[in-house]
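Researcher: Last one for today. Full complex below.
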Amino acid sequence: MNSVILQIAARYVRWMLLIFALVALIRGHNYPGGGFIGGLLAGLALIYDGFAFDHKRISKKRKINPVGYIGVGLLLIFISLLFGILSGDVLMKGIWISLNLPLLGQLKLGTPFIFDIGVFFVVIGITILFFLSLKRR
Amino acid sequence: MNCVALPILIPLVLMIMQIFFRRKIFSQWLGISGSLLLLLSTFYLFGQVTKHGILTLNVGGWPAPYGITLVIDYLSILMLVISAVIIFCISIYAVSFLKTTGEKQRFYIAFYALILGLNGAFITGDVFNLYVWFEVMLISSFVLITLGSSREQLSGGIKYLSLNLIGSLLFLAGIGLLFGKTGTLNMAQLAEILREDDSAILLNTSAMLFFVAFGIKAAIFPLFFWLPASYHTPNITITSLFAGLLTKVGVYTMIRFFTLFFVQDQPFWHNLLLTLAGLTMFIGGSAAIAQYEIRKILSYHIISQIGYMVMGLGIFTPLGLAGGIFFTLHNMIAKTNTFLVSGMVFKLKGNYHLKNIGGLVKESPLLAVLFIIPAFALAGVPPLSGFFAKFILIKAGFEDGHYFVTAVAVFTGLLTLYSMIKIWNEAFLKKSPEDPSHEKDKIKLSLLEVLPSILLGLISLGMGIFASSVFGYTMEAANQLINPSIYIETVLYNQ
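Model: Here's the assembly. Have a good evening.
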């Protein structure tokens, strides 16, 4: 597809989608959102170029390897599973720490967040993988 | 340390490693040694189950009805061990029977994803979690079917995926109804609620949705169409893997659901199960007779033999269930082995069609022996495993007075024998239709190629010779299924 409007919009929409994706990812534990939705949004941001310009741009110019994304995501998921065992409890036990930051107030961080980031990457990888394999035909 | 989660964790780690280290040699040896590790871990868990009884693990530390519980009882561990044996053999077989390096690398990634889903389905104690594992299996098996990305494979893969997605949809609808009625999806708590409840007749709607969903997965009589449409398309390694494992997960879940909590309205369900079992056996067996392509004959046989497993469930006495489980275990091994042998026939002759091949008995006597063992095991010739499996089922059928379906089972045994003898006559005994004057260079099978088949053949033989001890374990499993109070007690109250 060769549309000037889409190509110019791509520059801005991409970043908007990525920021949205991150917001969805971070608020995910207690509110609607999370790794899966965030991953879909971020995947959409990355394949926007493919719609606007050419699908080869994704794999060549941006050097994105979808299987690598899936691997990193699965690795993060696996690491988040291990925290429970390492702390002497059962598998997948959520471990939480709370930080007192000067401006933001109390921030709670836990292993479910690592799991969510893992899901985020797996979903990005799968989205790009599907897009590239469909475009190649 | 609690090792219940090992059958899930090992494939997950292996999958990650396969993604990151994609050198050719490395991915092969990692594939084989990883499956060996999985096999050893299931042996260890088997020891634990025989020592301590049912093992449970509450994932994430959430106690039983609230979190997801992983449960390993006798039925689960028997399925885990036998599937780990098949996985080990397939991982060796893949080294020599997948063509390109890229194909091998992608194969091992999707292979471990499939095993992740498979083992998860065997050990989960939660209905929704089971659904998730089914999806993991469905997606990775779709990737495996279309691995060669030829036109034929894509068409087979689409048929497979679309029919199985309908199954998943019904499964999900069934889960919705079940959750709406009981407010829980933990299998043990479901059993506790539903076994006490007199108005449980209302649950027949959701039971029927589950039954159709698992029926599609297991390929029983009116729902089996996806199987012959797709199983002959992928590489033979992948067909063997599917033949041994995929449909049996459907049977496993059916046994689990219809012994643990869908036990109301028994006359209706058992008549339905027995009728469909008889039809599945007969139609699968007679459809196989009409085929002349080895993989298609064997594919229809998968369907036919699902009937026997469902029959064990339909009889619903301890002996009948034990027979059904014994048959499932025997069939997983023998069925995979026949497909492995057909792959070797293809390697030697370059053709799967019975009319175009022949003379294998002279060309490769070892291959003939390797074929005879699983073929006769499937047909039920003593002293191989299939004889005892069928014997127990038929005895249970007569004891409980199901004469008609038992007669069908005996008759289908003859049909199986006929098809196996047909393959034997055409592929092995008959003279080769190729012109002997300009014979090609003889292809020899290497040790690595025949090793998986030898292993599986020995296990078929061993399950026949040590039938009494295997029967002892399946009887334990059947007793646990008939009296689920121990299961419920262990999962819910004995943390």
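The two ends of chain B are 14 Å apart (CA to CA). Residues 151-182 of chain B form the longest helix (32 residues).
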